[in-house]
Amino acid sequence: MCGIVGYIGFRSAREVLLKSLKRLEYRGYDSAGVAIVNDGLKVEKKKGFIENLKVNFDGTLGIGHTRWATHGVPSDRNAHPFVDCHGNIAVVHNGIIENFMELREELISKGHVFTSETDSEVVAHLIEEYYDGSLKDAFFKAVSRLKGSFAIAAIHRGERKIMAVKNESPLVIGIGDHENFIASDIPAFLEYTNRVIVLRDGEVCEVSDDYVRVYDMEGREIRKEVQRIEWTVEDAEKGGYEHFMLKEIFEQPRAVDDTLRSLLARTSDHWGDFQRIAIVACGTSYHAGLTAKYVIEELLHIPVEVYYASEYRYRANVDDSYLAIFITQSGETADTIGAARRAKAHGHRTLAITNVVGSSITNYVDHVLYTNAGPEIGVAATKTFTSQLMALYYFAITSAERMGRISHGRYEELMRSLHRVSYWIEATLNLEDRIAEEARRVAESGNMFYIARWLNYPIALEGALKMKEISYIHAEGYPAGELKHGPLALIDDGMPVVALVPEDRLYEKMLSNIKEVSARNAYVIALSSREDVEKYVDTLLRMPKVDPLFTPFTNVVALQLLAYHTARVLGREIDKPKNLAKSVTVE
Ligand code: G6P
User: What's the rounded mean pLDDT across residues 205-214?
Assistant: First the structure.
């Protein structure tokens, strides 16, 4: 998984490509490179962050790449762009070419010389093999040989155009005046233009200074709509915060409100009634799904099963038909897309919840609900998570009302609560200094637990995930009642245990579980709106008092801040944690 960019126009291609790559760094950052046409074709590529890439040539046509390694270790050699044997053609690729081994052997037998271990390099040699004076013709022929997922851009030293293709990896075109852009994602070129064409799978584009043509794989031209994007560049930048993650944590009141507003503006929801639900997602989105299970079961009284997308894809199809909900902020996660295709193939009704308009997942489902969180750059998901919760709560509440599972009075009460979520999150953000103090204590530990019950159990998992991802402290989330069946053996003197203690029907039970860990000398940090919890714990973070069904929103925000400040004390690369990438477009 990687980010690709391309520029053709009148500006310095070096400047445009490097700036655009920087905005795509969230897609991977283990190596980067550019190729620019300038009296020939020049390439510079290097292992490491984009800052390490020193480009001492320029031109007005070029392509670039930021990499997250799949085939071949991160190295200068395996960095993109790749060139053909004669240095005429340069190629960047995001995705996986599944049949690259056989293509590579074929090309080697024809005399091509490979310089890397990547799957991507075959594309440069394939285009070379077919090149007969037209990059466009050779590109079509080469692409027709590829199997797998790919967004690819190619240039030739003797032609003023960029050829690109999209199949199961994202690609968008930015339309300017006498200049055009391509990229894996819109923020890459938003500084220059907000007019965008979103490509669909199987579409090829030919981009020159003054025109953009989109074709299907057979070369027939397709008419595409140009969309205007309303985000500003600042939306995609740090806006004065030390890290994107902190900015995005603080954007949550707005993100959930914008999401709610866009959901309320929908005229109708067409997915009808259902008797079962399966929710499928990865990572943080999976935790949103798990929280939703409790909320939906509470309000709709129907069974909900939640699956990791990578597991769902390969299970037997044993159930009667159900509504399958796919949650993916990026809309590009390969496992989730694979799972959606499978659900559809088995005849289930499918609904996607995503933050990215026109993202790949939307091509594979019957219905889409958009969150409206704006672009999220920090690798650790924050505002997209609470926005997903907002969409899922909205779904649960409106479905419960429509299917007659709750009274109109209860519906109105729940909708009022939904409108209050942004205030409750604001109130939680005010606890930042207290949480930062606690983070100093947590930063000294190597292991910790998060415990909770019922609909806050997934929030314990999410709190632990946030801590692992960005601080590298080993943290595990557990249902509080389950600790005594094993994990209690790991509790040591002073080990931090974060306990979520909302004022709900399990309050007393949570207190008993806290006593179990306190008795083993854990250092208990409780999150609760009840002052009297203080007597049972080492430290209490006094949470705002909210409707019990809505405590996941406030608790998760506090846990995001705890992870953030712990990672900050430890001096971690918060926005770019090691080994991780924002959007994982490989299985
Ligand atoms: C990656 C990210 C996680 C994210 C997961 C699912 O692993 O690092 O933060 O939760 O992908 O992403 P999605 O875009 O499908 O929600």
Answer: 98
